Amino acid sequence: MRKTWIWTGAIIVAVLFFMAFRTALLDPLGFRVKHALHITTAAKPEDAPIVFIHGYDGSNWTFFTTTVRYSATDFGTRSLKLLVRENGDIDISGVYDKAMKRPMIRVNFENPRSIIPNNATWFSKAMELLKKDYGIEDVDVVAHSYGGLTFVNFLQKYNYNANYYPEVNTFTAIGTPFNGSVVSSDGKTPYDLTANGPMKESQYFREMVERRDRIPGDLKMLNIIGDLGDGSRSDGPVAVDSAKSAAFIFNSENYQQVLFTGRFAQHSWLHANIGVDSEIKDFIEANR
Fold it and tell me: By the 8 A CB rule, do 165 and 118 touch?
């Protein structure tokens, strides 16, 4: 029995390694050849890039396996990695081609532990580069945890001057603490929701509500929420009601939320959950 488990584990590791090798090295190869031959074609409207934003203390690895899985199932193509330095400079690696099917672009921050306003400024630099240097007109955005707050801060502070940035068609937040990060073992906090909103508002939540008129009314929003089912009503670091507070920030006509439960609804597992992959895929395809 033990040998069977060892062989099963070895096979799984080998498959994952092959998928990573294929998507990281072989997928962009054809596009490198096309660049060398100066061959370009126009992308289809439904093939707009997906931009990924990691959360607090996140890194390039946050959405690494996500992009591997999407590439392996032909939903998207691994493309650029942007590392935004604290001074606003951007290190670029990877390949972008207009003919790629849903180029997947990961935006990373040199300082992943900075405050949300700094992250939003750095993200604006990345978005400006995508439009100015690559001619990208519209994108879908997927963010984990504090990355969701980074994106909302960007929308409310920078996107009013939208000529500088790609238009955002859909926004998916995964485990984002829209109203603080207070969690209790019994599932009750001062920030719990009522029919009219949170009983108590965090500073960030209050600011987002005050500036919600700066969020495009036609932005489609998918809110992925996790609940471990251990009585805490949380995914570990983020309370369910904190995540659900997004409903009081975004246009209700274009807002939807999905709750995942169990061990794979844990905060850091949500972006590795294939069920979450499926929800995001269906959401993006339905709104293109």
Answer: no
CB of 229 closer than 8 Å to CB of 220 = no
* Burial zone of 22 (CB within 10 Å; 0-12 exposed, 13-18 middle, 19+ buried): middle
Q: Does the pLDDT value for residue 10 go beyond 80?
A: no
Q: What is the mean pLDDT of residues 152-161?
A: 89
Cα 107 from Cα 131, distance rounded (Å): 14
Q: Which of 240, 247, 285 is nearest to 267 (CA)?
A: 240
Q: 2-21 vs 64-72: helix axis angle to the nearest 10?
A: 80
* Nearest residue to 260 (alpha-carbon basis) of 244, 245, 284: 244
2-286: CATH topology is: Rossmann fold (3.40.50)
Q: What span, in angstroms and rounded, lies between the C-alpha atoms of 271 and 142? A: 10
pTM of model > 0.85: yes
Handedness of CA 244, 249, 250, 253 (dihedral sign): positive
Phi and psi (nearest 5°) for 79?
Answer: -130, -110
Q: Domain limits of the chain?
A: 2-286
